[in-house]
Amino acid sequence: MPILNSVYRHREAGRPLTELAAYREAGGYKALESVLGETDADDLQYAFVRSGLRGRGGAGFPMGRKASFLPKDSRLPKYVVCNADESEPGTFKDREIMEMNPFQLLEGLTLAGYAIGAVRGYIYIRGEYEHQARVLDAAVRAAREAGFLGKDLLRSGFDYDITVYRGAGAYICGEETALLESLEGKRGQPRLKPPFPAVAGLYGSPTLINNVETLTALPPIVTRGADWYAALGPEKSPGTKLFSISGHVVRPGNYEIVLGDTTLRELIFEHAGGLREGRRVKAVWVGGSSVPVIGEEHLDTPLDYESLQGIGTALGSGGCIVMDDSGCIVRACLRLASFYRHESCGKCSPCREGTSWFERILQRMVDGDGRMEDFELLESLFRRVSGKTLCPLADGAIAPIRSAIKLFRDDFIRVCQEGSPRPEPMLPASVG
Amino acid sequence: MDADRIRAHLDPIRHEFADPRSLVMPALKFAQTEKGHLTREDMAAVAEATGYSPSFIESVASFYDRLYTRPVGNRVVSVCVTLSCMLRGADEVWDALCEHEGVDHHHGGTSADGRITIQEAQCLGYCDKGACIQVDAEETKGPYTPEEAVKLVEELREAPTPAELWR
Amino acid sequence: MAEYAPVDLTVENQVEFELDGRRVAAPAGTMLADACYAHGVEIPIFCYEPRIGPPIGACRMCLVEVEGMRGLQTACSTPVAPDMVVRTTTDAVKEAQDGVLEVLLANHPLDCPVCDKGGECPLQDRTFKFGPGTSRYVEPKRHQPKPLNLSHRIALDRERCISCFRCVRFSQEVAQDGELTMQERGARSEITTFSGDPYRGRFSGNIIDVCPVGALTSIPYRFVSRPWDVQNTPSVCGLCPVGCNTELTVREGRTKRVTGRPEPNPAVEEGWLCDTGRWAYDASWSQARITAAVVREATGDRTATLEDAVDGAAALLRGRTAGILVGTAATVEEAGIAADLAGGALPGAVVARMGIPGGALAPLRALPGAQLGDVDDADLVVVAGGDPSAQQPVAELRLRKARRFGATVTGCGPRPHALEALGTFIRTAPGDLAAGVASLAEAIAAATRPVVMWDEADLAGEPAAAEALAAAIAANPAARQLELGAEVNGSGLRALGLPDAGAVLDAVRAGTVDALLLVHADPLDAPGRAAWDAALEGFAGPVIAIASHADATTERADLVLPALTMWEQEGTLVSMNGRVQRLRPGARGPEGAAAGWELLVALAHRLGVVPGYRTAAAAFRAVTAGRPAFAGITPEAAGVLGVPLAAPAQVAGASAPPPASGEGVPLVATRTVYGGAAARRSAALADTAAPAELRMAPDTAAAHWVNDGDRVVLRSSSGESGRLTVRVGDGLPEGVVFAPLGAPGSPTEGVLPADMAPVLVRVARVEAG
Ligand SMILES: Cc1cc2nc3c(=O)[nH]c(=O)nc-3n(C[C@H](O)[C@H](O)[C@H](O)COP(=O)(O)O)c2cc1C
Ligand code: SF4
Ligand code: SF4
Ligand code: SF4
Ligand code: FES
Ligand code: FES
Questions:
Q1: Residue nearest to ligand 3 atom 4, measured at CA
Q2: What is this structure's pTM?
Q3: Which of A302, B50, C507, C596 shows its CA 20 to 30 Å from the CA of C224?
Q4: Would you say C578 and C369 are in contact if contact means Cβ atoms under 8 Å apart?
């Protein structure tokens, strides 16, 4: 079903646009054609700023402003890097874009390249998305053949090409400086900042890094105008956002909503089909697993950056994980703790050692060997680790657990004493 | 795999990178297509083809979950065990597969006949399809029940080994 | 402590900031951690090690509060800024420090009482000063297999490792040997070599010094001592002419360990040592060590007390005219006193030094000289001839550092070597170094701060090249030269004005001397040995050797006086580029041995002349008096870090060598410290000992009818070599053969002339491989 006010053309069209012809038919590459040779790069950057588009990778930094941080007078080549590492638990929106609408991403990446005067764009895609990487490879080839990539794009004098670079399985490579390290052929361990990538990024050159969804939003911003985009949703965080919803919901999937227009309750119960009969919402990680967990009482919060921040959580990547009252919050926390322990890159001591420690304590709790002093210990460890690490991964590990202990203290105390038997999962009907 | 084959694989993409070190990852991925994992010789060949030290090559390979510096079975079955999939029965799928293949329930492992490796995966980005499974480096599928998952590995056991799946 | 970068608080235009309520200043760009240390505030660090490279911010130990900045900042990576307000003792800082130490100690075995690092361990110290009192970790600890051998010399205890990355960064960035890396990820991260192979490197031991915990330890030192029952003595390494500053760890009169100085010498080694310099000390109790005086009589050898032996030596020398030959590793004091004998106790004696005559090098040595530390600031570093990695090991690290700092590295020379990868190097035909030099002149002229390193041995043999290089350097007033010397104390002996060994050789041949006194001199193992062999064949007078180890010459001596080694005695060495530095005694040495200078003083006494000095320091003053190179230099002035000579150490009366004569293929001789003579005497380094191999390219081998593995001898106009094994290798230039100096039995030395003039050799197969 086509969606009104959709930023993503495959959604608007209601079908995959993996062929260049189909994408063109749906209005594809009109933005690039209108800009190349016509619009000044600075004007384009300014349009991005005016649109109010914020980064969709998690941090929500205004896209146009980030582009404006790149030095104008650098003698080094500039690059745009598209962060397609999508590994945040609960998040699978970029996958849909790359799978169904690869050209819009390429077009957006090319527009960004033009706006900053880049020589090449890289799409760093997680290694597990081999299928999506192949879709992108084919799209790059088609775009190159059609003159949308390569030398002298559309005879504008602008040379630009795109490389699809595959990761090999490491969540941390979604962190922008770890991504750059990985793209440079090294272990994906975050760099010390400053310098920021805008000044010294890929190969030490000024580099703009944006998420897939962020870059894919650029073509409609050009064709329909920055003002149109800025008028969607709240003033400070306009636009539409793809929410991935999963867990104990009947219709897991991606849903595009206009920010601020939809509440969490609507997302879960209207878009995602609600829960199983007789179940109630227990816990929601609304912006991926690295945000504080919230409970039923916040279901009527509108989905936008400020509102979610207002209730003590964050919009994050828009990977909304829902757990109903059949689930065990301590087990959920343990599972996330294991995730972060597994994904800690090991560069900085508090995270490398801390994430292992968190996991061990939670494991003891789930096994019924928790002690009352473990709460104080955990809280003290959180205090000692959070905000003191080299990159935000450790904070992401702490936020969901720390908030869960606050919110569901009774469950934790019960589990500490009795342990937590494995609850019944929500099983699928058949292979989908 | 020998260094010349790796070099030949890298030649067409060399110009895409300002620093040849970026070729290390494509080289490792390509070298792994031959045996499914990277042997000492494979890593030495990557070192030779790219000009970096074998130790550096191994340090890179060992960082990433999907580069295997230890032998794996003919088919690698990655079961997502992260939160969304857990809520949708991933642990049950995992247990059923470990049981069926006779491998350790904590760490997974390779079946005695060497055909199937069962390994845990962290969120595969298919949470809407939880509990989901990725086979080798092919597309992830789901949702799986434990029974369907067992059927899947049975089919895989019979199916021929995929040749070059990764670029 | 060496872990912080030295901060010069005397420069102008410093940045003022507030440190814990005090107004202080430091030069712009100084990292907070270093600035604080300079002002007496110790900020705990683990991963930061400014000598290794820029900060990486990994350990998070150094967090401090900076007003106006969100959260705590890593002091190791935050440069001082004007009016910055820094607090290092607040509750938040304390909490962060507790936190990092708590997590680091969670899985740490806490086995300090049995740890070699115990008592000198930054982790232990910092836990004591900054850490939490108790552990709240009740989970099972991560266990690792107990210490494994990273190499024959380095043990790794993974349980103690805190993953600070210092060792791997040393390997990757400083030594650039590519050997040591961090593998796996997260809590499973571990440092290792490729597939756990032994760590192969010329500088591997430095990782022990930089490790802030007891994870990396020296195998020869394991469980030998505890830091509280040893003395540490600052000294210098006497194994090559670089003159690295060292620290000797001494217990019960023995040298138990050699390490880089905790306060390194920025002008020389910067705290790094080569593996030879670090581990060769066990040579002082090796089999070849002479522990008692030997008197060789018709009835056989007998040992003697030192008293008797010195009396015996005096008796042998009395009334004779002696030739006195001083070895290249002899100290300034030993050489100076030996020279003094000629004026008193042994009137008419002819005194000379071993080593390269170097008559052609005067113009180069007269040019403004550089210290190794100056290489850091160079924009161009030229390496003319030689093979620094093999011959002046620690100079390699400076070159690599200069390259890392953006300098251009270039050079020329006849032999392939490890540093050629750093830049453009021109391979010159043997005897045609001048062509290479000519091609470098333009670059030297164009650079703003060039340092030209030149190889003493190679340039000594090619006067035309030396002259051209001197002219090229002189043409740029900003250019400085840095001699890559061939011999440990070559500069010191020259600075004393000793002529080259030819003077004694001629006297022996002419019969104008009728006794020989050898002071750490081994002419039968040195280039030119064929001539010495012949001369000694017909020499009827007594030969007396002062030596620490048995060698070809002591075998022929009539009397051997056992001397102390560089790890045991006091004295002065002058490094290749003229830095005067002091040896300080660590170990006592064998009962029956004495310092060379003391033996010489005793000998003078017995011969009836009482020298005016009784201590090494007094001897130094006496023997250097009136020598312009030593003007104003006293042992006190040399201090702990040494001082440059007052004037270049020029040679006395040597002539330039003639061009190559004879026929055959050109031979390029290669000196090596790593795996050289010192390694052969050391059990710890035994595996590094370089084999006696003649290397050549395939076509060259074919042209001489030899194959890989054949055993051959070489003949030149200077003599015949011992046996060498042919190694055919790709990547070597054709039309030239390479042979090592200092190989077991000194085979190559037999075909070389003492003046290092280029030689042509014939290759004769004696045994098929
Ligand atoms: C541990 C960690 C993982 C991250 N993973 C991703 C990711 O998978 N995809 C992504 O776009 N951004 C990810 N980010 C955020 C990026 O660092 C970066 O902010 C983002 O790519 C910028 O793009 P945007 O401004 O368009 O959001 C991650 C950050 C952290 C700290
Ligand atoms: S916080 Fe964790 S993931 Fe980030 S740099 Fe430190 S160890 Fe690596
Ligand atoms: S072995 Fe020592 S130097 Fe190396 S990472 Fe571990 S603690 Fe640091
Ligand atoms: S470089 Fe020379 S002086 Fe320095 S440690 Fe090695 S052998 Fe000794
Ligand atoms: S949690 Fe399994 S795919 Fe995301
Ligand atoms: S010393 Fe500053 S982070 Fe390690």
A1: C167
A2: 0.96
A3: C596
A4: yes
